[in-house]
Write a structure and sequence with these properties.
By secondary structure, the chain is of the alpha/beta class. It is built from 10 helices and 8 strands. The mean pLDDT is 96.
Length: 251
């Protein structure tokens, strides 16, 4: 499997990191490993808070792996791939620990979904966002509920419809995706360190109860996100999508 997931636990803070050599994109196997890791860390009694981050200084996450998308040749395989995003979002939603996000640079598609699914998100001014799915003939069907929950239907629809345009980190903060935006990675990391240290010493049960309140009304996502995955899994087989992804990869 290209890429990897790593976990470091220190002082009741679990740092979950993901990496892929192609702009931290997410192939199916990596998605499933990330979902499994978040679930396991959430059940670890030695962990009070989770920090989710990606490796490197460039893209936070380029979303779905285009290499894997172009290899999908059946609805079953398409459904299986996009269900990986459903598994990750639901793992984050159900995790009994608060999850803090670190977005050091651009987030695309599924990367925006990850940023929307953490409970509190830090970013730098370079962390522009884009939901590019419609541009390649599909749509942000699986991540859509998470993004809509965080920034509202109006802002989510702007991202989904204007699929070739980046929105700035300042825009994302204004809409509520990011809690803070910093000039530098160093400033962001200092602020993250302060918050996670505070949360690490907060009452775990109180944080768990707060998280339940934050995610009220999403129990149906256990079915909804997998239903949405089927839509993407069908559309990814279209000639439009195959040609659009090939053109993008040829640039």
């Amino acid at each position: 499997m290209e890429g990897n997931i790593s976990v470091v636990i220190k002082d009741t803070v679990a740092t979950v990191s993901f990496f892929h050599p192609k702009s931290n994109s997410l192939p199916g196997a990596l998605l499933r490993e990330l979902a499994k890791t978040i679930t396991e860390v959430g059940q670890n009694s030695e962990v009070n808070v989770i920090l989710l981050r990606s490796e490197g200084e460039k893209a936070f996450c380029a979303g779905a792996s285009f290499d894997e998308l172009v290899s999908i040749d059946s609805e079953e395989k398409g459904d299986h791939f996009f269900s990986g995003f459903a598994l990750v979002i639901n793992a984050m939603r159900k995790c009994p620990k608060l999850i803090v996000g670190r977005v050091q640079n651009k987030a695309v598609g599924g990367g925006v979904g990850l940023a929307a699914s953490v409970d509190y998100c830090f970013a730098t001014k370079s962390a522009s966002v884009k939901l590019s799915e419609l541009a390649v003939g599909i749509g942000p069907f699986v991540v859509g509920p998470a993004v809509e929950r965080k920034i509202g239907m109006s802002a989510m629809s702007q991202l989904a419809i204007d699929a070739t345009q980046w929105q700035s980190a300042a825009w994302a903060k204004e809409k509520g995706l990011y809690a803070h935006v910093f000039e530098t990675v160093e400033e962001m990391d200092a602020a993250i360190e302060t918050l996670v240290a505070t949360l690490a010493n907060s009452h775990p049960e109180a944080m768990n109860e707060l998280k339940k309140i934050f995610w009220q009304g999403t129990d149906h996502w256990d079915q909804l996100l997998f239903d949405r995955a089927k839509i993407s899994g069908r559309l990814v087989l279209s000639d439009f999508t195959k040609n659009a992804i090939a053109a993008f990869k040829a640039k």
